[in-house]
Structure formats: C-alpha cells, structure tokens
Amino acid sequence: MTVNTEAPAPAPAATTRPPNTKGAKKKSWTGLWFVLPFAAFYALFLVWPTFLGLYYSFTDKSLTGRPASWVGLENWAEAFGDERAWAALVNTAEFTLYSTPPLVIVAIVLALLVNRARRFGWFLRMAFFAPFVVPVSVVTMIWIWIYQPTGGLLNHYLQLLGLQDAAEPALWLQDQSTAMWAVVLTTVWWTMGFNFLLYLAALQTIPADVYEASAIDGASWWRQLWHLTLPLLKRTTALVIVLQLIASLRIFDQMYLMTAGGPDRATEVAIHYIYISGFEGYRIGYASALSYVLFVLILIVSIVQFRLFSRKED
Amino acid sequence: MTALQEKPKAAPSKRPVVKRRLKKPSVGAVIVYIAAAALAVMWLLPLLWAVSTSFKEETEASLGQPIHWIPENWSIEGYRTLFERGDHLTWMINSTIVSTIVTVLTLVLCVSAAYGFSRFDFPGKNVIFGAIIAGLMVPGQALIIPLFDLVNDLHLAGTYWGLALPQVVAPVMVFILKRFFDAIPRDYEEAAKLDGAGHFRVLWNVILPLSGPIMAAVAIFTFIGSWNNFLWPLLVATDPSMMTLPVGLGVVSGGYGLFYAQNMAAAVLGALPLLIIFLIFQKQIVKGVAGVGLK
What we know:
The structure holds two protein chains of two kinds.
Chain A: H1 12-15, H2 21-24, H3 30-56, H4 74-81, H5 83-116, H6 121-129, H7 136-146, H8 153-160, H9 179-204, H10 208-216, H11 221-232, H12 234-249, H13 253-258, H14 270-280, H15 284-310
Chain B: H1 3-23, H2 27-54, H3 58-61, H4 77-85, H5 87-119, H6 125-135, H7 144-153, H8 160-164, H9 171-182, H10 187-194, H11 199-210, H12 212-228, H13 231-236, H14 245-252, H15 260-280, H16 282-290
Helix pairs in contact in B: 2-15, 4-15, 5-9, 5-12, 5-14, 10-11, 12-16
C-alpha cells in the first residue's frame, strides 16, 4: 500500500523511465483537448455547485421555486443558533466516537489473525470483506430483521444465553439509549472489511527479516506485536482514522434507513438534518448554509489527511 | 491502487516465514486458525440468516416463530412474489444502466484527462491540475443541495443522465491514472510516432494496452461505488420506476411490512450482483483497496 510503504519500487516500468523526458515536451494546445472534456464536467458538477451553494447560503432560495432574495448572513446566524443543527452535529460526533475504535481495533485483530492463517487466507479475506460490497439498503434490511424485539435473531440469542429477560426484550432501534449503538454495530459489520484489507496489506509489506531478527533476540509474540508490528502499522492507523472521520462526518444512509433519525431525533445526523431542511422544509438557502458548515469541517479533516499523506507522493 | 504495482516486491521476502509455519503447525497456529475460522463464520451469519429466511414460507419466517437456521419447509414463495411484483427487476436494470454510464464515462474522461496531463504541456496546465487536486478534498455529500438544484435546472431530474452525470466527476481517478501513465516509458510512443501514429493512436495502441490492470481497478471501483450510491439517487429518482436498486429496496421494499421471507429474498437478490462481481474480481478489488493511499 502506497501510503505507508516507501520502499517497494513502483511499477517495473517506472524504473526504466528515461531521464530526459522533460525536455521532449513542447508547449502546445494539443494536451488541452484531452483534458477539456473532464475539466468541463468537473467545472459543471463540482466547481460550480461549490460556489452556487455558497451563494445560496446568503439567499432565502426555496425548493418551491419562488424568486429568491438576498438575506445576507441571516441563514448563517440562524444555523449557529439552531439547537437541532447542533444536536445533529453532536449525534454525528457521537457516532464517530463509538464507531471509530471498533473499526480500527477489530480490523487490526482480524488482519493479524488472517495474516498468520495463510492457508485459507482467501476464504477469510472474502468473509470479512464481503459485507462491504453489499448495498446499504440490503445491509439495513437484514439488520432491522435481526434487531426485531420479538423474533429477532439478536434478542433470541441474548435470551438463550440468559442475558435478557424474554418478558422485556430490548427494543434496539426503537430505544433512544440503544439506537445509536445498534447503527454503530451494523456499520462496523458493514465497513470493517475495508480497514481490514488496508491493515492486511500493510502487514504483508513488513519484511520477514524484521521478525527474524527480533526472534533471534528472543522476543515473544506479544513483545513483537507491541514493539514491532503495531508501531509499523502507525501510518495505516493514521490513514484509517482520518478516512473514518471523513466517512463519519458524511454519515447518513444507515440512519435514514434504520431509524429515520429517531427515536426522538436520537440518531439524526448532520447530512440528515440538511436533507430535512432542504427537501422536506424546502429551504434551499438555509440548507446551503448548514451544508457549508459541514463542508468546512470535512475540508479541515481532508486537509489534515492530505498533509499527512501527500508528502509520500512525490 | 498503486499496490497493483507492488506485487512483485512483497512476495519473495515473505517466503521463508511461510514455509516454516506450514511445516510444523504449532499449538498457537492451530488456535489462530480456529479463532479466524470461527470469526469468519460469525461475520457471515447475518448474510446466511438472510438467505435462510428467504427460503422459508412466510408463516415460518414471521415474528415470534422459533428460530430455525434450516427452513422446515423450503419454499421459493418469497422470490416468486418478488418477481410477480416486478419492481425489483426494474431497479436492477436501472442500476445496471446508471452504473454502466458512470463507469464508461469515467473511464473515457479520466483516461483522456490523465493522458493529457501526463504527456503534454499546455497553457494553464498547472492551474487546471491544481484545481482538480483540490477537488480531492471536496466532500460531494455536502454539495447535494446546489447539485440537485443544478440538475433540476438542466431538466435532468428523474432521468438516467441526471442520476449518472454528477457521479462521473472523479478527480481521484484522474490522479491515479496520471501517475500510472507517468511511469510508462516513452520509448514505445516514440517508436509509434516514428511510424506516423497520432496522439489518439498512441493512447489507444500503446498506453491503453499497457494499462490493463489499473483500468480494471478504476472500472470496478467506479462501478461498485455507483451501484451502491444511495443519497444522490434518493434525491433524483423519486418515481419508483426510475429508482436504483439501493433506493428502491430502501424506500419501497421497507414497506413490505411483515413479509420477511419476501423481504429477505429482496435482500439476497439485492446483494447478489455485487457479491458475484466481488468473487470474480477478488484479486483486483483487494489490491485496489490496499493501494487506496491517496483518497
């Protein structure tokens, strides 16, 4: 994996790259024609909406199509004073806080296991990664079914193990205190495989002689893990955490499908509130201001990511 | 996705360790195998439970019934009613159309742009490339409001193009492809040019044949990403006949109520296409994730 491994040479082709390619290039318009189609799409569907959104945030534009007028900082002032918006951000942060540790730790543990279990590696890799390619609505359909208070698989086994009284089944998604955890568990199951593969790839780039040297020194498996493996995985962990932060800030699908933000808005997250303001409240202007707050938050995390990892790219 | 390129290096240094471990499986190794296998089976349980439920009769699948992993009476009732309703097939076709448009356009546009950036110098190159790199950091989900408005103004809402076009903009793919093209030696092109080949011929006959794996990776990931996209099609396709599979399953099928066999039949069929793609392209996908590096 490119992020944390400088050593392995890139494509064999790269090593045979002729040194004097720079001089061969002449400035001409030809290249622009190759770039232009993508650039046009890019300008229309990414650059333009970015500025359009900023502009809308200063207007009272509505989805109903009535003419919009300039309202200055009104939307922004409202957004910063909007308790529901803050609550949505807090819920987003809560989701991040609950989901990131298991998504890192479970991925590391499973990657360590699979890295050692070589013979059935392909089956294990497949089993842990498979949920990642399943569409979100399929994932939520299955888990809603598992979380059913009566007749659901989870409560069934909890009762079988004597951890739950059959007369008082846990409501999971319909209980304010457990809904977020239920969504987190589903998310960990669904997306862990991606991090798992990142770790597995990182583990496989650690040269064996590193371990051989420490084995000669008489280091135990645990010592190797703490003093060798985990430190070598630091860069991957940084990447996983940053990617997780960005993904968590954008979280929407699972909540929308599993709890619709409930019960009592306990799982209403940032994008969901933007969606509600814009598409249910018809307030495009206000939703744009909310979007921009989120936009800036994600941008900050992304810049951190970029600075952490781009220096490896030159 | 650069991991694609790392393969030859990683293997040799590993080999001695593997051999030693395979020769004498220690107690520790056996424990590792058992733990890993148990966890893998546990990880697959939700999917297996969906499959199991989908082959039950509705009465056996309904709430409050005892839990059987093997259906007492095997039945394809759930699948039959699903096909009789027909919308599942419509969504599947829609998803296929949209994801194909997105994948083909992404490949064409990104390959062309990457080639342009890699092989030519032209006025404004650095500015345009800088702008595209900046796009790596722009969160698409935070742009849905103005994007929706734009697509509405273009009269594309509720059409395949409205669903597909905004998903085509993938700066990261341009970046990945450009890096790959940069590494291809220019000698080959020089030879082709001496034979009188134009820029398109060079791209088509020299660069692309050397870029098979990276193109496959870009195509697979674009396809999966588009197929599983939820928020954008949720906004644009409000009519059930235009919905993609994830949206249809989430919005319409969620309303099947207590028909769990049918519900899980829909889930199984919904998971199947990409699971099959995953099984076929397992190698490329695993390597692609491993090389995610930049994004």
